[in-house]
Amino acid sequence: EDQVTQSPEALRLQEGESSSLNCSYTVSGLRGLFWYRQDPGKGPEFLFTLYSAGEEKEKERLKATLTKKESFLHITAPKPEDSATYLCAVNSGNTPLVFGKGTRLSVIA
Amino acid sequence: NAGVTQTPKFRVLKTGQSMTLLCAQDMNHEYMYWYRQDPGMGLRLIHYSVGEGTTAKGEVPDGYNVSRLKKQNFLLGLESAAPSQTSVYFCASSRTGTGVEAFFGQGTRLTVV
Question: What does the pLDDT look like over B27-41, one tens digit per residue?
Fold first, then answer.
């Protein structure tokens, strides 16, 4: 059974204070690891897909990396508008996405 | 481009009432999904569909039924609502079932009293 664990549950940063969010996963045959952003009252918004260990993807202040057991979402010099819940999900075979519980990020000006 | 649209956005039901949530996608995706999101529980899969006329159970299917009569629509039904079904429901769709991202609707906030 695919499992995803995200840490920390909540993270509070000062504007400009870089940090990382962790996503640990257990899956038989990874077909993709996905990062989403979710704002309050809205649906998850797709950010990145990673397919194999060593892969990295970047978008503005966000960079996602992948190892064989975990993924990190690095946030460089965050701004208040980066405040959101970040969700990690995995896909194996034809099994629909299995999500972690998310990390709630608050960036304070 | 509307993407994934859910109807309604909010609803209050009394225990025992029934209702149907509608999801429509305009991306010609084969796969569609219904998730529920509860505080501290994350997104949990209720049912999904791999194509028109097909459905399958997810992690938490009890108390729900689904139908996919048209490729672009996926309906979630509650036959006899219970307070435990108070939640935010999200519909999603994807081009295939493997290795591609899913796109989500804006959600339906359902309260059962």
Answer: 999 999 999 999 988
What is the interface size between A and B, counted as CB pairs within 8 Å? 62
Q: Does B66 touch chain A (CB under 8 A)?
A: no
- A31·B41 Cβ contact <8 A: no
Per-residue pLDDT tens for B67-99?
A: 999 999 999 999 999 999 999 999 999 998 888
pLDDT at B106: 97
Output the CA–CA distances (angstroms, integers) from residue B3 to A30, A59, B72, B88, in the order listed: 27, 22, 11, 19
A37 neighbors A89 (Cβ within 8 angstroms) = no
| Dihedral of alpha carbons B31, A69, A101, B78, sign | positive
Cβ–Cβ of B102/A100 closer than 8 Å?
Answer: no
**3-state SS assignment for residue B106:** coil
